[in-house]
From TrEMBL:
Oxidoreductase recorded as keyword: no
Species classification: Eukaryota, Metazoa, Chordata, Craniata, Vertebrata
Single GO molecular function: sulfotransferase activity
Domain spans labelled Sulfotransferase: 7-142
Record key words, sorted: Membrane, Transferase, Transmembrane, Transmembrane helix
Gene3D superfamilies for this protein: P-loop containing nucleotide triphosphate hydrolases
Transmembrane segments: 21-42
Family: Belongs to the sulfotransferase 1 family.
EC code(s) of this entry: 2.8.2.-
Name of the featured protein: Sulfotransferase
Species of origin: Cyprinus carpio (Common carp)
């Protein structure tokens, strides 16, 4: 999913305010504006699939997901549109896998990207409230079909490397 933050026009004697929009849109579906800064959060497709599967109350959808016939379209086509924006200075790409490694440091990087200074206590509170303890991990780690699709679509891309698929899913 991606999160957009836009600065509102500054009024006299008031702090800057931010608006945010959470979306699962492809980059090409967003309004292009130089005033937007974009935080893009990607999750390993196997972890995302398991999470969505449980979220949907175990409704049968695996074949629809693999065919890209879910509400937001193909995960892989979506990922490849954002892959093209990795070097855009107004786009910060973060993966769940990176957040798992050092959540506090990534909270600091995200706040710096948006020029929102945080105290160490605020960073600690945000990181503490954003742990992955409730996530189901590796439930689908042996799914050959997902491995093949990942290899065909994202292996060899910068985003594919950052998702650390080989480390977390094989």
């Amino acid at each position: 999913s991606s999160l957009l933050l836009k600065k509102k026009k500054k009024k006299k004697k008031k702090k800057k305010k931010f608006q945010n929009i959470r979306t699962h849109c492809f980059f090409s579906h967003l309004i292009q504006c130089v005033f937007f800064q974009i935080l893009v959060l990607f999750r390993n497709p196997k972890d995302m699939l398991v999470s969505y599967y449980h979220f949907m109350n175990k409704n049968p959808f695996f074949s629809d997901f693999m065919a890209g016939e879910v509400a937001w379209g193909s995960y892989f086509d979506h990922a490849l549109t954002w892959e093209k924006r990795l070097d855009d200075p107004n786009v910060m790409m973060v993966t769940y896998e990176e957040l798992k490694q050092n959540l506090s440091e990534d909270v600091k990087k995200i706040s710096a990207f948006f020029n929102l200074p945080l105290t160490d206590e605020q960073v600690s509170n945000i990181a503490g409230g954003s742990t992955f303890n409730t996530m189901l991990e590796n439930s689908w780690q042996f799914c050959k079909q997902m491995d093949e699709l990942f290899q065909a679509k994202l292996a060899g891309t910068n985003l594919g490397a950052r998702l650390k698929y080989d480390l977390y899913c094989q």
